[in-house]
Write a structure and sequence with these properties.
globular; 240 residues; 2 strands; mainly alpha
């Protein structure tokens, strides 16, 4: 237990910096994320969010490999396309599902930084708004992306930081879960999708690329769990 006022102040200060869930709360939030992405209509905006980060990752990979992005296109069913020229096709094709899972993990980490919760929501909304200006060309994509901006700004009306943090953590988990589920759809598509494109470019079977994406998404969720465990162990040792 704390030895005095200084120890108590230090524990309070450490807690003020983090919005880390307990181990049981982690699984409750994961369960909530699983339930929400399976509810018709309600799950649609979160599928759009995963699709957005998927296409954004294609776009970023294109730019980083010296290519150029013409525009991105999103559809109501959660599908999307990134129209680009140049760049390294293998990296670009791989980074869609890889990037979506990575974005989910990064957002989860932001959701554990209590003092930056509101800034995180605002920055994510600004990122989507910037994408509208740079890469959205058709009305449907603009409407979908504008809906995502509102989705990210609405939680800012919540007064409790802890509730904001929990909301952002659940959103991050839904992005990772959608990134985990989406590649499985590719197995039922004949001659289409990122996995098929990679198979044609590398001679590595499409199912192996799907397996890599699945494993990476699971790893991102596991790293979130490990972060919770480390914080719980640190908090316990601090209080002794």
């Amino acid at each position: 237990m704390p030895n005095g006022p200084m120890d108590s102040a230090r524990i309070s200060s450490d807690s003020a910096h983090f919005a880390m869930p307990s181990k049981s709360r982690f699984f409750l939030e994961l369960l909530l994320a699983i339930i929400v992405i399976r509810i018709p209509f309600i799950s649609v905006p979160f599928k759009w969010l995963e699709s957005y980060f998927h296409e954004l990752s294609h776009g970023i990979a294109t730019v980083l490999t010296a290519g150029s992005v013409s525009h991105i296109q999103l559809f109501p069913n959660g599908a999307g396309l990134c129209y680009s020229q140049g760049g390294w096709p293998i990296i670009i094709a791989f980074c869609g599902y890889f990037g979506a899972a990575l974005w989910g993990y990064l957002i989860y980490n932001l959701a554990t930084w209590q003092r930056a919760i509101r800034v995180s929501f605002a920055c994510l909304a600004a990122l989507v708004a910037l994408t509208i200006l740079l890469w959205a060309r058709d009305l449907l994509t603009i409407v979908i992306l504008s809906s995502l901006v509102l989705l990210l700004l609405l939680p800012l009306k919540l007064s409790h930081v802890s509730l904001l943090a929990a909301t952002l953590r659940v959103v991050a988990m839904m992005i990772m879960l959608n990134a985990l589920a989406s590649p499985l759809v590719l197995l039922g598509l004949s001659g289409r999708g990122d996995a098929v494109a990679l198979a044609q470019m590398t001679w590595i079977p499409a199912w192996i690329w799907v397996a890599i994406w699945l494993a990476f998404s699971l790893w991102m969720l596991y790293l979130c769990w490990q972060r919770v465990l480390r914080h719980a162990a640190k908090s316990k040792s601090t209080k002794l």
